[in-house]
Design a protein that fits this description.
302 residues; alpha/beta; Arc Repressor Mutant, subunit A; D-Maltodextrin-Binding Protein, domain 2; 2 domains; two-stranded antiparallel sheet
């Protein structure tokens, strides 16, 4: 069955998704290597093809309409499927054996990489994988320096000098000890109150730290951290002991929320504000191929 004539091109769908991810038509244009007027023209062509208004354009910038947000939601699996197709073809052309050097931030290494590697081993049992774990800044440095072929990072943006691809979204959640006053409050906690409260945070260079700081900075200048700890395990233990609140990935605190050691605090922020992206990163001159392309395809599909 042929595609309907109003079917949009993948490139312009990817551009619209980039607007959603960056919050800016100009930044989306920069990511795609085109000018902002060219990006605006492509979005206008898409709007005419779909007969929908996707962006509200104003003197202070552009933002997605309700229809635009819906189109982005539908576009994401289409783009993922197209990329998986290309990755799969690349993997078929590449060698199935060899050594793959992977670096991953702590959250991704703990909660996503093991499953990916199991799937990769089932597909390519001869591939030997060397995994290094650190914060996102350290992972980016390993990839930039050529010590890792493929990296996986968290945070609000793409590390300088690297190419990237979003593999998954992640939800940030504010948590406290069961005895903390916020655990018993009614209604949602304001983002201004959260930003003005000293929190226990990861160390500078952590993708989680950067993401949380970026979210809070949209409301007001965040209060200085109550403490800076180098691992999520240490942070969770400190929060459970009643030291101070924190904001972490829901993946990281899922077990503690289920057994009651920590309590999630509802916030008055829009859900999109509390979402961040897990990204695969690589050097522009060394795009993923062979086992690297296969692992990337697995990460996207999972």
């Amino acid at each position: 069955m042929p595609l309907p004539p109003e079917t949009p091109d993948l490139d312009v769908l990817d551009l619209l998704v980039a607007v959603a991810e960056t919050g800016s038509l100009g930044q989306a244009a920069q990511r795609h290597g085109i000018s902002q007027p060219a990006a605006s023209m492509r979005i206008s062509t898409l709007e005419r093809r779909l007969r929908l208004v996707l962006l509200e354009r104003g003197p202070t910038g552009s933002r997605l309409t309700t229809a635009g947000a819906a189109v982005v939601t539908w576009a994401l699996p289409v783009l993922d499927a197209a990329r998986a197709l290309v990755d799969g073809v690349t993997a078929l052309h590449a060698e199935g054996t060899g050594r793959l050097r992977v670096a991953a931030s702590m959250t991704i290494a703990d909660h996503r990489v093991p499953g990916w590697l199991v799937a990769l081993r089932a597909r390519s049992p001869d591939v030997r994988v060397a995994l290094q774990v650190g914060n996102s800044e350290h992972v980016a440095a390993l990839v930039q320096g050529g010590s890792a072929d493929l990296g996986f990072v968290e945070g609000p943006g793409v590390p300088r000098g690297l190419r990237s691809r979003v593999v998954e979204s992640d939800e940030l959640v504010a948590v406290v000890a069961p005895g903390h006053p916020w655990a018993r409050r009614r209604g949602r906690l304001s983002m201004a109150t959260l930003a003005g409260t000293p929190l226990i945070m990861r160390e500078p260079g952590s993708g989680t730290r950067d993401a949380v700081w970026g979210v809070l900075s949209r409301v007001r200048e965040p209060a200085p951290p109550a403490a800076e700890l180098g691992s999520t395990a240490a942070i969770k233990a400190a929060v459970a002991a009643g030291e101070a609140p924190t904001v972490l990935s829901r993946l990281v605190v899922r077990g503690e929320l289920e057994d009651g050691r920590l309590v999630a605090v509802p916030l008055d922020a829009e859900p999109a504000l509390l979402r961040r992206w897990f990204r695969a990163v690589w050097r522009p001159e060394a795009p993923p191929s062979g086992a690297g392309a296969a692992l990337l395809a697995i990460a996207v599909r999972r």
